[in-house]
Every structure is written in C-alpha cells, then in structure tokens.
Design goal:
- The protein is mainly α.
- Helices cover 87% and strands 0% of the residues.
- The chain has helices spanning 7-29, 35-90.
- The radius of gyration is 25 Å and the shape is elongated.
Length: 91
Amino acid sequence: MKNQHSAAWIFQAWASFVISISVLGVGIVYMPVDPWKKAFLGMGVLFSIASTFSVAKTTRDLHEAKRFTSRVDEARVEKLIGEHDKASSMV
C-alpha cells in the first residue's frame, strides 16, 4: 500500500495535536476554579481524546476491510471470466 501522506503533513498533524493538548492542559491547570473542577474537566478531555482515537481507528479499519473485500470480489470475477473464456474457446 502506497503512503499517501508526506512526512511534512504527518509532522504537522502530530505537532498540532501535541500543541493543542499542551495548551489545553496548561489552561486547565491555571484556571481559577477548585481542583475537583479541574480534575473533572481534565478527565473529560482525556476521555474525549481516547474516544476520538477509537472512532478514527474503527473508521480506518472499516475502510480497509471494504477495500480488501473489493479486491477479493475482483479476483473472483477475474477467475470466472478466465474460466468462461477458456470454455468459450473450446467450443
């Protein structure tokens, strides 16, 4: 499978992720509220990040499974066409 993303794009995606999470963490730490409110907000952020990764992985896996199924179906069709061509040339 060919990699469709450049190294610069991959770096930019990870850098923006790390920077945004870091800035959000600093904002939560310095927020003028009670510690339990900070903890609740931080826990919500962590669960949101984890669920985002899960959804992204699931979406990717479903896409790859459909691609694999398509390739298997194409191979079956090519085999049937090849067998049909052989049978037609014998007649």
